[in-house]
């Protein structure tokens, strides 16, 4: 099954739609004619430039509503979660200024203190 991100005029994803096997139809062109909106193929199994099933990664990340599409690098980029985070240009994901601790304990980012804090139950 093929998936397509629907982009507004600012290259923001406003929807994602699925279709049958793309080799059997010309849906992307038809959708663009019908809606006047650009559709870009997206891979459900791609995140951070890695294909989860060992295949070829496609456009860095599976598109989601609110993601932006950067034509210059042919990639979908999620919304920036915090002002201090920087875009990793290899993965097209956002990196915190401080690496999250590598433990089983759940953490959340505190933007005011610029650090990871243990999630209290």
Molecular structure report:
The protein has 121 residues and is mainly beta. The chain has 2 domains: 79 residues, no CATH class; 41 residues, no CATH class. Helix content is 7%, strand content 35%. The chain is elongated and about 50 Å long.
Write the layout of secondary structure elements.
Elements: E1 2-7, E2 13-19, H1 27-35, E3 38-42, E4 46-47, E5 50-51, E6 68-70, E7 75-77, E8 86-88, E9 93-95, E10 107-110, E11 115-118
Antiparallel strand pairs: 1-2, 1-3, 4-5, 6-7, 8-9, 10-11
Mean pLDDT: 90
Radius of gyration: 17 Å
Estimate the strand proportion. 25-35%
What percentage of residues falls in helices of 4 or more residues? Answer: under 10%
Can you tell me the residue ranges where pLDDT is under 50 for at least 5 consecutive residues? Answer: none
**Helix-strand pattern:** EEHEEEEEEEEE
As for the number of domains, it is 2
State the shape: elongated
Distance between the termini: 40 Å
- Total count of strands: 11
Number of helices: 1
Give me the side-by-side strand order of the main sheet: 2-1-3
Structural class: mainly beta
Task: Provide a compact summary of the structure.
This protein has 121 residues and is mainly beta. 7% of the residues lie in helices and 35% in strands.
């Amino acid at each position: 099954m093929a998936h397509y991100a629907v982009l507004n005029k600012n290259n923001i994803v406003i929807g994602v739609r699925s279709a049958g096997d793309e080799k059997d139809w010309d849906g992307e062109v038809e959708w663009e004619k019908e809606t006047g909106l650009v559709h870009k193929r997206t891979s459900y199994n791609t995140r951070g430039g890695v294909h989860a099933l060992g295949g070829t990664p496609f456009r860095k990340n599976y598109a989601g509503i609110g993601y932006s599409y950067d034509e210059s690098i042919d990639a979908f980029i999620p919304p920036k979660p915090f002002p201090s985070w920087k875009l990793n240009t290899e993965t097209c994901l956002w990196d915190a200024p401080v690496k999250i601790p590598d433990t089983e304990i759940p953490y959340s980012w505190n933007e005011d203190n610029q650090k990871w804090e243990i999630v209290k139950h």
